[in-house]
């Protein structure tokens, strides 16, 4: 390719460098009721993998902004209409190998910030079908048995501790 008499290489080799990788910083939002019923959702891409709302930050979002966006995208709920709390806690975990292709080469860990969202009671959820296939409201201890990630179990343990309960 030539411009102004200067030869530039074809842009094709650089396209791979411009791939939009996920940022290895995310939010986990534990949605629950005052009596500790917890929303869990089964992943669309991994049958039997149950989880809370989670998602990576996008662009220059803060973890709190990502939490609000992810709650809307994954449940149809407006987190700002309920009691959303930043738990001022995070966990670093190893990204599962089958999901590492979403991140830049060499990225193997993610920092996940924890939030709690208290609803007045179990509400109907509008799932994002590309992310989750079904949801259930279950007791927090049952949720801890069913979620697949240790960070989700940690969030549930923290929820119990806020109510002077242990797993």
Kindly list the characteristics that best describe this protein.
167 residues, Nucleoside Triphosphate Pyrophosphohydrolase, three-stranded antiparallel β-sheet, 9 strands, 22% helix
What's the pLDDT, averaged over the residues? 91
Number of strands: 9
Q: Any idea what the CATH superfamily is called? A: Nucleoside Triphosphate Pyrophosphohydrolase
Low-pLDDT segments: 8-16
Radius of gyration: 19 Å
Number of helices: 4
Q: Briefly note the structural class of the backbone.
A: alpha+beta
Overall number of domains: 1
- At the fold tier of CATH, the topology name is Nucleoside Triphosphate Pyrophosphohydrolase
Shape: globular
Order of helices and strands: EEHEEEEHEEEHH
The strands making up the biggest β-sheet line up spatially as 6-3-8-7
- CATH class equals Alpha Beta
Task: Give an overview of the whole structure.
- The protein has 167 residues and is of the alpha+beta class.
- It has a single domain (21-162), classed as Nucleoside Triphosphate Pyrophosphohydrolase.
- It has helices at 12-15, 63-75, 140-146, 150-162, and strands spanning 2-3, 6-7, 25-32, 37-43, 50-51, 53-56, 83-94, 109-118, 132-139.
- A hairpin with a 6-residue loop joins β4 and β5 (50-51).
- α3 packs antiparallel against α4 (150-162).
- The relative contact order is 0.23.
Q: Short description, anyone?
A:
The chain has 167 residues and is an alpha+beta fold. It has 4 helices and 9 strands.
Task: Show the helix and strand layout.
Elements lengths: L1 E2 L2 E2 L4 H4 L9 E8 L4 E7 L6 E2 L1 E4 L6 H13 L7 E12 L14 E10 L13 E8 H7 L3 H13 L5
Parallel strand pairs: 3-8
Antiparallel strand pairs: 1-2, 3-6, 4-5, 4-9, 7-8
Helix pairs in contact: 3-4
């Amino acid at each position: 390719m030539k411009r102004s008499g200067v030869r530039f290489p074809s842009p094709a080799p650089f396209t791979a460098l411009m791939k939009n990788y996920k940022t290895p910083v995310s939010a986990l939002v534990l949605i629950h009721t005052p009596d500790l019923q917890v929303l869990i959702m089964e992943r669309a891409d991994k049958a039997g993998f149950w989880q809370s709302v989670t998602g990576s930050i996008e662009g220059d979002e803060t973890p709190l902004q990502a939490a609000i966006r992810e709650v809307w995208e994954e449940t149809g709920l407006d987190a700002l209409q309920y009691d959303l709390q930043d738990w001022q806690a995070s966990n670093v975990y190893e990204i599962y190998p089958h999901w590492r292709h979403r991140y830049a080469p060499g990225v193997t860990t993610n920092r996940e910030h924890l939030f709690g969202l208290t609803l007045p009671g179990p509400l109907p959820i509008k799932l994002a079908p590309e992310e989750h296939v079904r949801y259930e409201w279950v007791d927090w201890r049952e949720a801890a048995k069913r979620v697949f990630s240790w960070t989700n179990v940690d969030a549930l343990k923290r929820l119990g501790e806020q109510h002077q309960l242990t797993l």
